[in-house]
């Protein structure tokens, strides 16, 4: 049994690492067992000499102040036992990767094996395997290997103290080797196969000794925890207590018998405990016991920090909710009209309204003045006025004429010009902004008249967008594209509106023209 103080002050632990376990997993198993059972905040722990997951055997773990001895233990000679499989090779020099090539072994004899074995004793120049954790240029070698990148692995000096081989299971060579720090047994197996004019890879490996520490004294991680780290939880002892009490009657039984016998019951016959109940301590539930055990794992400082963070979190959420509740709520209404409601065909030769009746009729028309630029018979100025602007000018002229009539027919003292109230009802700000926006439409398509839909102009920006259109023989627009050179804006809202309404344009049918290319120009402008 090892105490928490011994672990903290320093201890050397001998662990027999199981196959398929990494060295990190073995150390972590011991570390968390110590922290959990002894309720420690932290502990210094590390291992001396890494073992591959495909290798088993001795792993020396140091705790506390003995972690300073890790370098000393790593420098000590190490002893391994294992198996070399001849006649095949793998990229990782062991069974981590699949066999990639096969080689003959018929020429290999025990005498040749002994001769080559002698060559591997003493100081050797060894190249580590590419599938290793050695770093080069800040990157692990196995990362280069897995990416398929060829890289030159630097060699190193190692020393082989002892190398014994058993050839009874040829082509499997069972061996025992004692070597210096930094020796890769996988590279030893690969180099030994090449020296036999064949190939070989490591098929089994177990570390039996590091310096004076042997695997015979080691325990597996599970056995070590079970043996040396006690379970500090209090055991639950189940006992059965059998007590015999004298037979006593309850109050109801006594008074029932009294009613039958018409005799007064005595005090001794009454069970006082049946009236008052036993003063027994209530047993706590299993959930409450587990909660108390969980709470004992935390110090008062931990509890205070957790409570502070909880209060801070609730405060932030409350302030955020108050801020959101204080913001005014806005409602956005988007009105979409169908093409039948907004499209009014404007022929290239349609004259502008010249009389008051025509101007009144034009109030229901679109605020666009689309004409075909490709028609040579029409001549238009570059300055195009919308119908709303023309109507405003007409109204101003009529008001001026009315004033002149009143002046000529009345004396100055009787003259009173009362402004006529607007016939249009007041609208919301959103509608007013929309009414102050206008779209001028022009198109160019040789030999065809068209009906161009008026875009609902709700964008913030203004500018000119030129859309290149492809019209089929039925007069339908089949393709659209933006002429970036002719356009004066890159606003996404304007471009999206132009493309959407350009597709809805309709032109005269032309059976002899399967595809005709033209343009539609949208000039989006605000009323100044």
Total beta strand runs: 19
Shape descriptor reads flat
Low-confidence stretches: 335-369, 378-382, 410-436
Chain oligomer state: single chain
Beta-strand proportion? 15-25%
Task: Please give the alpha-carbon distance between the first and last residues.
Answer: 93 Å
Q: Average pLDDT value?
A: 76
Which value, in Å, is the CA radius of gyration?
A: 49 Å
State the major sheet.
9 strands, mixed
Helix content: 25-40%
Instruction: Name the structural class.
Output: alpha+beta
Number of helices: 16
Active site: 52
EC number: 5.4.99.25
Family: Belongs to the pseudouridine synthase TruB family. Type 1 subfamily.
Protein name: tRNA pseudouridine synthase B
Question: What labels would you give this structure?
Answer:
single chain; alpha+beta; four-stranded antiparallel β-sheet; 528 residues; Pseudouridine synthase; nine-stranded mixed β-sheet; flat
Question: Strands, helices and their partners?
Answer:
Layout: H1 4-9, E1 10-17, H2 23-38, E2 45-48, E3 56-64, H3 70-74, E4 78-86, E5 88-89, E6 101-102, H4 110-119, E7 122-126, E8 135-136, E9 139-140, H5 141-146, E10 156-169, E11 172-179, H6 185-195, E12 200-210, E13 213-214, H7 221-228, H8 251-261, H9 272-276, H10 286-296, H11 300-326, H12 339-342, H13 356-361, H14 387-409, H15 429-435, E14 437-444, E15 450-451, E16 463-472, E17 477-482, H16 492-502, E18 506-507, E19 515-526
Parallel strand pairs: 3-12
Antiparallel strand pairs: 1-3, 2-3, 4-11, 4-12, 5-6, 7-10, 8-9, 10-11, 12-13, 14-19, 15-18, 16-17, 16-19
């Amino acid at each position: 049994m090892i105490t928490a103080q011994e672990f903290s002050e320093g201890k050397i632990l001998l662990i027999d690492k199981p196959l398929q376990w990494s060295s990190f997993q073995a150390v972590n198993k011991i570390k968390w067992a110590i922290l959990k059972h002894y309720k420690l905040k932290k502990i210094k722990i590390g291992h001396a000499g890494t073992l591959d997951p495909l290798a088993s055997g001795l792993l020396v773990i140091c705790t506390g102040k003995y972690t300073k001895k890790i370098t000393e233990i790593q420098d000590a000679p190490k002893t391994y036992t294992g198996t070399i499989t001849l006649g095949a090779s793998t990229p990782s020099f062991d069974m981590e990767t699949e066999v990639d090539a096969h080689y003959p072994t018929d020429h290999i004899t025990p005498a040749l094996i002994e001769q080559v074995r002698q060559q591997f004793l003493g100081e050797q120049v060894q190249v580590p395997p590419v599938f290793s954790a050695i770093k080069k240029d800040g990157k692990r070698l196995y990362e280069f290997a897995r990416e398929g990148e060829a890289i030159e692995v630097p060699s190193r000096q190692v020393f082989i103290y002892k190398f014994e081989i058993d050839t009874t299971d040829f082509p499997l060579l069972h061996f025992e080797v004692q070597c210096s720090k930094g020796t890769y047994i996988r590279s030893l197996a690969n180099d030994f196969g090449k020296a036999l004019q064949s190939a070989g890879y490591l098929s089994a490996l177990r570390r039996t000794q590091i310096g004076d520490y042997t695997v015979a004294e080691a325990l597996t991680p599970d056995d070590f925890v079970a043996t040396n780290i006690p379970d500090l939880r209090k055991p639950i002892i189940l006992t059965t207590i059998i007590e015999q009490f004298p037979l006593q009657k309850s109050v109801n039984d006594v008074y029932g018998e009294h009613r039958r016998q018409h005799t007064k019951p005595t005090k001794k016959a009454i069970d006082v405990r049946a009236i008052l109940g036993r003063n027994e301590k209530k047993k706590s539930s299993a959930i409450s016991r587990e909660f108390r055990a969980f709470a004992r794992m935390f110090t008062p400082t931990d509890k205070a920090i957790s409570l502070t963070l909880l209060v801070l979190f609730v405060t932030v959420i409350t302030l955020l909710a108050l801020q959101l509740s204080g913001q005014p709520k806005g409602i956005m209404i988007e009105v979409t009209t169908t093409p039948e409601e907004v499209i009014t065909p404007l022929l290239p030769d349609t004259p502008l309204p010249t009389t008051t009746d025509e101007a009144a009729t034009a109030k229901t028309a679109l605020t666009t003045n689309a004409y075909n630029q490709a028609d040579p018979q029409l001549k238009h100025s570059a300055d195009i006025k919308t119908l709303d602007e023309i109507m405003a000018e007409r109204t101003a002229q009529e008001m001026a004429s009315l004033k002149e009539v009143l002046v000529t027919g009345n004396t100055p003292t009787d003259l009173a010009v009362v402004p006529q109230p607007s016939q249009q009802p007041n609208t919301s700000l959103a509608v007013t902004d929309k009414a102050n926006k206008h779209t001028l439409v022009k198109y160019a398509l040789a030999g065809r008249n068209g009906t161009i839909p008026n875009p609902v102009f709700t964008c913030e920006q203004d500018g000119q967008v030129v859309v290149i259109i492809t019209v089929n023989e039925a007069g339908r627009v089949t393709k659209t594209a933006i002429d970036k050179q002719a356009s004066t804006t890159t606003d996404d809202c304007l471009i999206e509106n132009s493309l959407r309404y350009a597709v809805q344009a309709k032109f005269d049918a032309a059976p002899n023209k399967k595809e005709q290319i033209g343009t539609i120009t949208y000039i989006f402008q605000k009323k100044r």
